[in-house]
Amino acid sequence: MIVGIDEAGRGPLAGPLVCVCVALPKGLNFPDNIKVIDSKKLNVSQRLRAFRYIVENAYWAVEVVDVYTIDRLNIRRATLLGMSRVLEKFLDRYRQLDNWFEVLVDGKDGIELPAELPGVCQAVVKGDMLVPEISCASILAKVIRDGIMKGLDVLYPEYGFSRHKGYATAEHIGVINRLGPSRVHRRSYEPVSQITLW
């Protein structure tokens, strides 16, 4: 079984990181109206259509890494931790489906597999464009994280999270400079770390 792992939210100044595992059932064919590529290459309606199909037809698991963990560990280590945890969730749910797992991780860093797991792990640069399972994980991670940021917009409406999703837009940085960071900002990230309005 090929298991693809990807994340959404490494770069933003605020909000969590979302890591997702996806495996596809043998013989699954995507309909013509479902595009499975890097989530950033899809518009909102295409992502949502693909999201619904993947959730209903694939095997998947999700792990959310909070801003406190990101600040404590740094984003690279927090990402690897999130990917390891989401793989554990996935295996707890689906290990009975196969006796060999090929775990493919988007990017330059692989993760250590559980000692008792029969399989291998490989990092795949630009895997979200090359490996369907990673593309599906990318889509799920993006849609789930965008939904979380819309929820945080309700709690912190002055920051505009539903518009920029926590990324470092001029609008976002301007609000941080004016109001200071919220509880969901990553205080280890510049320019948040340079702002003294705590």
Topology at a glance:
Blueprint: E1 2-8, E2 17-23, H1 44-57, E3 59-65, H2 67-73, H3 75-94, E4 101-106, E5 119-124, H4 127-130, H5 132-155, H6 161-164, H7 170-179
Parallel strand pairs: 1-4, 4-5
Antiparallel strand pairs: 1-2, 2-3
Helix pairs in contact: 1-5, 2-3
Can you describe what's shown?
The protein contains 7 helices and 5 strands. It is α/β, with parallel strands linked by helices and 198 residues long. It has a single domain (2-155), classed as Ribonuclease H-like superfamily/Ribonuclease H (Nucleotidyltransferase, domain 5), CATH 3.30.420. A 5-stranded mixed beta sheet has the order 3-2-1-4-5, sandwiched between helices. Strand 1 and strand 2 form a beta hairpin. Helix 1 packs across helix 5 (132-155) and helix 2 (67-73) crosses helix 3 (75-94). The longest helix is centred in the last third of the chain and has 24 residues, at 132-155. The mean pLDDT is 95.
Query: What's the CATH topology name?
Result: Nucleotidyltransferase, domain 5
Number of strands: 5
Give the N-to-C terminal Cα separation. 48 Å
> What is Rg?
17 Å
Features:
globular, Nucleotidyltransferase, domain 5, five-stranded mixed sheet, alpha/beta
Put the structure in a nutshell:
The protein is α/β, with parallel strands linked by helices. It contains 7 helices and 5 strands; from the N terminus they run ββαβααββαααα. The model has no long low-confidence stretch (mean pLDDT 95).
